[in-house]
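Minutes, project check-in
Item: structure for the 333-residue chain
Input as provided by the requester:
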Amino acid sequence: MVGSVIFGIILDKTHKFKQIHSNFSKEFERGYLEVLKHQFGRERVHANRVYQYYISDRHHLHMTSTQWDTLTDFVKWLGREGKCKVDEAEEGWYVQYIDRDPETIAMQEAVSRKEKIDRDDQEMMMMAFIEKQIEKGKEVFTEFVRPSEQHKIVVNLKLEIKRDGDMKNKTLVAGNALKNGSSADKGEVKRGSYQPLVRSLKMKRTREHINRKDYWLVEGIVVKVMAKCLGDKYHRKKGVVTGVPDKCVATVCMLDSGHKLKLDQEHLETVIPAIGRPVRVVNGAYRGCSAMLRELDQKKFCVTIEISSGPLKGRIVDRVEYGDICKLYNVDM
C-alpha cells in the first residue's frame, strides 16, 4: 500500500516536471523566434548570432531548462517543424524566419511579379532603342554626280549686303555646324557599337530558351534530401549524386551514413556553398558550366557567379536563382 502511494507520488511529480519542461521549451522557442523576426526579418543569418542577441537579455531563459541539449538540436527541430528555413554551411547552421502572414505573402508575391515585369519592360525598351539607333546608323548620304558633261547645274544665289554683326553671327553658326558634323561622325561610331550588345542580349535569351529544362540532376553535385516520409534519418541530410538513371531520378549516396537512395528530383534540393567555392550550373542559360560563387543576395534569393571553364571562362553572371546552381562535391578550382 505504501509502495503504491510512493509510486503515485513519483508519477505525479514526473508529469509536473515534464509539463514545466515543455512550458520552458515553448517560452525559449517563442523568445528565439521573436528575436529572429524583429532583429533580422527574413534575412538568412547564423543561428548562433540570433542566440547571442537572445541571451543579451538578462531575463532570458537558459537552454538547459528546455528539451534541447544544444543549439544545433534546437535549429534542426525548427527546420523539421517548418518554423524556419535552416541549412548547414561550413561556418555552421543558418536560419531564416518564415513569415506565414497571408497579407505579407501576398505582398511579397506582388513585389516579385512587379520586379520581373519591370525587368522585362526595361529589356524590351533597351532592345527597341538599340534597334532604332542601328536603323539610323544605316542611313547613307550619297555623293552628287552629274549624269553627263552637258547636264547643267543651276545655282540660285541671292546676294544681299550684310552688316558686320550678321557676318560674325554667320561665322559662329558655320563653326558650330562643323563641330556638330564632327560629333555626328563620332555618333555614327557609337551607334555601331550597339550591335554587339544586341547580339549578346539575343544570344543570352536564346541560351535561356534552349537550356531551361524541367529537370536538373547531374552527377557530382551535393543535394539535400527534403522527403519527410523518409524520417529524420534522411530528411534534410546531404548526399552526393552518383548516378542519374532517369532525367528526374538520381542515385544519392548519403554523406553521413554512406547509404544509397534512389530519389525523384521533387524530393531533392540544390545546396548553396560558401562564397568562393565551386558550383555547377544545373539549369538556365549557362546550364552545364562550372563556376565560382562570387556573391549571395539573400533578399532576392539569387547569386552572382563567375564562369570558370570553357569558352566563357571569366564571364560574370548575376541574378542567378538558387535552384539553377548547386555545390560540387570535393572539387578545388
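Outcome recorded: The longest strand covers residues 238-246.
No further action items on this chain.
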